[in-house]
Amino acid sequence: MGTGSKIKAILKEQKKTIKQLSQESGVSLNTLYSITKRDSAAVTAPVLEKVAQALQVPVFSLLPEKQATEALIGIDNLTKYFENEYNNPESEHYHSETFRNKFSRDTLLHTALEEAIQDISFDQMDKAQELADQVYVDAMEGLPDRYIKKIIDNAFRFLNRRGKIEAMLRILELEENHRFHIDSSTNDDEYEDDKEEFEKE
Predict the structure, then answer these.
(1) Would the CA dihedral through 184, 189, 191, 192 be positive or negative?
(2) What are the tens digits of pLDDT across the range 181-201?
(3) pLDDT confidence of residue 190
(4) Is residue 7 within 8 Å of 62, Cβ to Cβ?
(5) Cβ of 37: how many Cβ atoms within 10 Å?
(6) Measured distance between the N- and C-terminal CA atoms of the chain, rounded to whole angstroms
(7) How far is CA 55 from CA 58, 72, 105, 136, 187, in A?
(8) Distance between alpha carbon 118 and the CA centroid of its chain, in Å?
(9) Distances (CA, A) of 58 to 50, 104, 109
(10) 55 touches 26 (CB < 8 A)
(11) d(CA 81, CA 69)
């Protein structure tokens, strides 16, 4: 569940509207609509902190589970490091106020929150690319193998020597991946035709 979905679930539980949340948090309606509809696409740390405060929930409870868990583990590790260094008489950071401010719980929480939100945007970009790739593959699914081969041949002709070698290596990589092997249980006449054409060349 993404941040937008979590906010909607809490609003439903608290019997509040997005308009009420906007008034209580000071975050604009447009921003909140964007977050809840796109499921966290427009989240920033300051906005999320205001929303969490208005909903009276821990800010990390609004993050997707993966980002929240990783961020909190990171904070725990840094806190342990701080305590060891700050309380160790042999450390250069022993009872250092500068060091204590740098590793204060609030500072660590804010830094971890910003990094977690950045991870959300990266995840969304990856998912969007995967979806776009899948749509493209699905659209190509009905094309005959001969047509696909013709497109590949035409594209290959426009590549320089380095590009042709890269293309060859990538095709060999695909060939080694069993996910892309032909299903031997089906009689693919089209493939057999292409195979005969290839062997003639």
Answers:
(1) positive
(2) 776 554 445 445 544 544 454
(3) 47
(4) yes
(5) 11
(6) 53
(7) 9, 20, 21, 41, 60
(8) 9
(9) 11, 17, 11
(10) no
(11) 19
